[in-house]
């Protein structure tokens, strides 16, 4: 064993399925290389469980490079662990110290029911996107790409919103289980771009309505979502969404579009 | 059976338009009478499902992830090629076609590649219309960068997250159709078999990964958009869940497998650190626009670097060997992937590798930072540099990156004709899942292009032709073939669940990966391949005797999922070895040590091997039968590829 390797105590949430009550179970993770990712550490623990004939710890993961948004885990009280601006799969064991106890829980929010152990059902996010997170264009018959000039600052700003990976850390971090950061990221991306203008106000209303229907809470400006977001999506997205949402509720839609055209 | 690729006759630039005209149409009112199954929701699957639903077909789409947005297309970094010639630098559809055929080392079909280049321009238009935030210049128009194997700048990009943005675009189009009720989406559902009725593909059997329910689904056509099989190597840049199962099940039902040995080993990945490693992370090829690849000039210097007695910065200019720039002055660091990978391996084999393991070379940005400033480099590659830092704990703005080749993409896949139909009527393969457009080596930024070309602009035309001829008679799961196939799937699951041995499935998978990497990786020879074949057969027997599979079917069961996938990789691995053994020439990513030029480049044998190898499954533990589709080159003159 290398001198730098770690011995850790894990307290892991185990829950057979949504119908059964869960509990914390303690495991030892021994001889863990600091170069391992957090999920690789769990792989090692799981290998030893399988050898003992015990059910491995179930968790969601896929790309393991911080972009698919499949991995989750609430680690020592933080979604995606203690470091900023990364996902759990990018968290490496060098961020922990020998002898440490690590508590691992699933996302806790009623719109994200536990499926098993650390895996939760995030299909509510898909349903919110289905409610309006798109520009209604069919394949074919669109103008040449360079016929829609977009100022670089606008394209960059829209991109910053578009980097959301839909992991759900914002909801897990929020005391209200609010999904406002997630929803506002898409609303803002499309709301800033010329392609998104025709449906701008319709989109924000239908996405917010679906968000409410799924049971997510409201935003009370705590800022935990922004602090924990692995892609550093800003709370200004929420302000923009609120702005569009209230405008949509206060004005007639043809007036809104006249206004937004006037703004250029 | 003779393979008919159905390439239309006539001049290359007119083939696709003429073909589209000749294809039969389904009238708008009849489209709603057809059901189409789409398996996989990456670029190919999501774009196909959305486009077909927009036309009016009823689509059922499936993915094994918890959301269609997670498919591994999302991880593509660098960009997407299109022959827009927005740079005025001499690009054209013909040049993209030419570069792709040459880059593929003359082992792809001219007709397919030309069509790909032709529709590439429509893809960019489509994505922009959806609101994909591509990189732009201050004038508001789209920006481009360069990729390997090309001397023009034709790569469109969205920072280092192009795949993410393109996939989210296709996902949004898919969502719109789900909302409209035209697509029924099944998440956490894995296809475990194909259902054949009267010799045609007419449905699939799936397992719901949450509760284990085995389901049957019917459709007039089945589209496999299930990606590549790079995870046969255990370590690759693929996501953990990427697997060959859907394609392999279809292969066993009669779909021929094309060029299984063509594997792309990507030159710039973060090197392996230890046995615990579960996957490898790519550093985008776009980095080779500004990064310079080098190794120390001598073995002695390399040893000192490895021991930490010297740092990279201590090496003087004359002690560094910028080996790609030295050997390939015309393309320099932007040679195609197979060439860059082999040269990197050569350095390591000579003892000139760096890092503690000695299995890496440098990718250095010091010059670019000096020339452009750190901020400019950050703007272009910031997220990649951050990713590198997270994994290695080294700051690439200060010290050169260490990189080494890793398995990244598989050019091989299910054999398809010009219509993307496999040898099973009604079964189509799109994107990385098929073998068609990249020959023996794929150029960078061409995977995204092909996935979206197949899904947005090819399949909506070609599937209509099949459906029109088939007729709108309803299909349902009452046919006994569905019950029978379901039973076979259940038997197989029970067989897996009965395995109560001593080795974990991951241990066996890792062993398979070692065999494949050692003998069927970057360099292959007859002796090694023969040895590998025996080793894979033994390992397969070991799996079916000694593997541990826990739990039961009727639950979320990671252990069972993995076991099913690895069982299929253990069969595919042997076919890859057979194919590599048969192909005695070197071409692109397939490097047979016995066949190289005096300078050590891949040496093709056009007289004997200018064909697509399409393998037919003949039953368990039976040798597969080789069918050959001769490749005809009318436009591009076959030469020894040169990037000097």
Largest interface, with counts of residues having CB < 8 Å to the other chain, equals: A-B, 77 and 81 residues
Number of helices of chain A: 9
The CATH architecture of the domain at 267-408 in chain B would be: Alpha-Beta Complex
* Low-confidence sequence ranges of chain A: none
Total of DSSP H or I helical runs spanning 4+ residues of chain B: 18
Residue windows where pLDDT falls under 50 for at least 5 positions of chain B? none
Which radius of gyration of chain B do the C-alpha atoms yield?
Answer: 24 Å
| Oligomer designation | heterodimer
Q: What level of helicity do the residues of chain B show?
A: 25-40%
- The CATH class name of the domain at 267-408 in chain B reads Alpha Beta
Overview of the structural elements:
The complex is a heterodimer of chains A (264) and B (644). Chain A has 264 residues and is of the alpha+beta class. Chain A has 2 domains: 6-116, Beta-grasp domain (Ubiquitin-like (UB roll)); 123-263, Fumarate Reductase Iron-sulfur Protein, Chain B, domain 2, CATH 1.10.1060. Chain A is 36% helix and 12% strand. Chain A has 9 helices and 7 strands, in the order ββαβββββαααααααα. In chain A, the strands form 2 sheets. In chain A, strands 2-1-5-3-4 form a 5-stranded mixed beta sheet. Chain A is elongated. The mean pLDDT of chain A is 95. Chain B has 644 residues and is α/β, with parallel strands linked by helices. Among the domains of chain B are: 267-408, Succinate dehydrogenase/fumarate reductase flavoprotein, catalytic domain (Flavocytochrome C3, Chain A, domain 1, Alpha-Beta Complex); 480-603, Up-down Bundle (Methane Monooxygenase Hydroxylase, Chain G, domain 1). Chain B is 38% helix and 15% strand. Chain B is built from 18 helices and 21 strands. Chain B has helices at residues 15-22, 28-31, 43-55, 93-103, 110-130, 162-179, 245-252, 299-307, 323-327, 337-349, 366-372, 374-392, 447-470, 480-497, 505-520, 526-546, 558-582, 606-609; strands at 35-39, 58-62, 80-81, 155-156, 183-186, 189-197, 200-208, 214-218, 221-224, 257-258, 263-269, 292-296, 320-321, 361-364, 401-410, 413-414, 427-429, 503-504, 547-548, 611-616, 625-630. In chain B, the strands form 6 sheets. In chain B, strands 5-2-1-9-17 form a 5-stranded parallel beta sheet. Chain B has a 5-stranded antiparallel beta sheet with strand order 11-15-14-12-13. In chain B, helix 3 (43-55) runs parallel beside helix 6 (162-179), helix 4 crosses helix 5 and helix 11 (366-372) runs antiparallel to helix 12. Chain B is globular. Chain B starts with 14 loop residues before the first helix and ends in a 14-residue tail after the last strand. Classes of the chains: A alpha+beta (264), B alpha/beta (644).
